Amino acid sequence: MRDAFAEIERARSALWSLDPGCNAGEHFRLAAAFANGGGDFEEFNRWSEQAHNYGSEGECRSVWKSASKPGSVTVATLFAAARAAGWTDGDEAPAKRPQSHQEKRQQPEASSKPPLHDPRAIFLDACKPATIEQAYIKQKLGLPDSLRTYDGPLTIAGNACAGSLVLPCSTLAGELVTLQFITPQGKKLFLPGCKLSPWPDACLIIGGPLKPDGVAYIGEGISQAWSAHQATRAPAVVAFGVGRMADIAQALRQRYQAARLVIVPDVGKESQAAAIAKDVHGAWVELPRELGQNGDLNDLHQRDGLPAVAALLERAKVHPQRFRLLTPDELAALPPVRWRVRGVLPLEGIGAVFGPSGSGKSFLVLSLLASVANGAEWFGCRVVRAPVLYIALEGEAGIAQRMKAHEAKHGRMAEGFRFMLQSLDIRNATDRADLVQAVRAAGWNGGVLCLDTLNRAAPGMDENDSKSMGEAIGAAKAIQAELGGLVLLVHHTGKDATRGLRGHSSLHAALDAAIEVTRTDDRREWKIAKSKDGEDGEAHPFRLDVVEIGEDEDGEPVTSCAVVPDESAGGAMRRGLPPKSGNQRIIWDALGDVLKASPHYGKAGAPPTRPCVPLDYAIEQTRDRLVCESKRQTERTQAALSGLVAKGLLEHREGWLWIA
Questions:
Q1: Does the predicted TM-score (pTM) go above 0.90?
Q2: Side-chain half-sphere CA neighbours of 158 within 13 A
Q3: Confidence (pLDDT) at 103
Q4: What is the predicted pLDDT for the residue at 143?
Q5: Is residue 93 very low, low, confident or very high in pLDDT (cuts 50, 70, 90)?
Q6: Helix (H) / strand (E) containing 374
Q7: In this structure, are residues 249 and 218 in contact, taking their beta carbons and an 8 Å threshold?
Q8: What CATH number matches the domain at 339-565, 2.40.50.140, 3.40.50.300, 2.30.40.10, 3.90.190.20?
Q9: Could you tell me the fold of the domain covering 204-318?
């Protein structure tokens, strides 16, 4: 006599030998019989979710709740149905369904007893190739490829299989493990004794083979696979039930690691599809709700045609990824660097102005920030206007005088300029939070925040220590992340000014832009030491003009300095004077308008602040200005441009022109 545990195992074995895709009445009857035999809902639900007509766990639980009440249906009903489907009581080991993904992925041990039916023999010897006229294929607008029809005497669970469409279900290694029969009445039955559950990768691929880096669509049944393949020409995978889609997706991901897997669920099962897609780093689609509960891709195909199916699959959703991998075309389509000061400072990031003491860098910084606040050109560079906060932590007493001198020389500063003279330590989280709060309260975020100097903004920092410098850099980046825009650091050079920024090299590496200020005797200049997509090294001379800004209490004049570009400074190649007349003058004037409208800067070695145009485009846009025969306009325009290049007024390299 069997004990209670053995009886439950018998009931489980019998249940798993049956097709879960039965009608609702039979599904209820089997639930009642399995419950009477000691079975539990979890096992019944796992069996049920393999069916093509499985709705949801909630629907299944509702059936179980009603069926599990005491009644006239006993476990004998389950055993009788199982024996009719080919199950042999006691001769086979209980069908233990694996409980974990890892267990599922293990190949089952070979049975010592041959299966009740040989799927290979039935498929190859008892079936004939399907045609496009087969009833189910015709009904679903499908394809006969790799499918067969059966006309023999086989009966499954009381259903005659003659005339059925037969679908082979094989592992990804190519081993045929079972067959699905779609009867003329539309019932979907699996071959008795050839269980699908132990094979987590058993499926049917339509339009295969799969490519290692190709696309594969995964659906519940054959009709969805037909529609996906016909709309995209990509392979589509039949999972044989919503409950198997996760296992199939996992198996495909393990075998095809670079493939794009797209889960195609029925209406109402989108959350399951999204979870599967997340697990395998794939995508999923959502069908129109008007198709109704359990409406599928084939319903869309039949209603709106294959173009609608293709459009839906192109809109497959993906979970956000931390890292985005760009194609060359996507990279080329990215917008160019956005400039705050064209060719010098980017719109966002971390920048620095550095130089030795006495070089005039703080005066230069004030001039730069004033131009940003005003939106005025700075040393001939275009500037995008933005609010400015100048945190002056060194030489605070002289800031007001420098501001007055600048205004006396260049006009009143814009309202968008703000100053802060209180000390702080940017490494201190409280100081950073208070600073961010003050800036936001003033509406000054998203512009340029200048810390003059970095040493005073991180007091006590060991600039040569990588950890200390890293903390200061991290603090500056934290401020920038909170406020956006550009954080500009004013810093010193070391004892050897030729070695650049003072302190650890990690500072230079962390910068998006850097301006170096130098002084030789009375000659001062700045140049770009680092720039995003700009050109390093072009020198811009400037001088400090003394400006009288008032008198002290003794009546003595109070002076400060203001930055002025020094156009008279030597060292740079002087170009000739523009021509006064003739074709060269006409083309010179016309080219100025063309260059002014050009979106191209810094081409072929041109300074990053110089607009450039292709030579052919320059000729095309200016030749009509010449008063001569139209057939000679191009030739004479070329001659005029060559003369301007020879005079040093224009530069021409690699097909690009710009003003020298």
A1: no
A2: 6
A3: 41
A4: 93
A5: very low
A6: helix 361-374
A7: yes
A8: 3.40.50.300
A9: Dna Topoisomerase Vi A Subunit; Chain: A, domain 2 (3.40.1360)
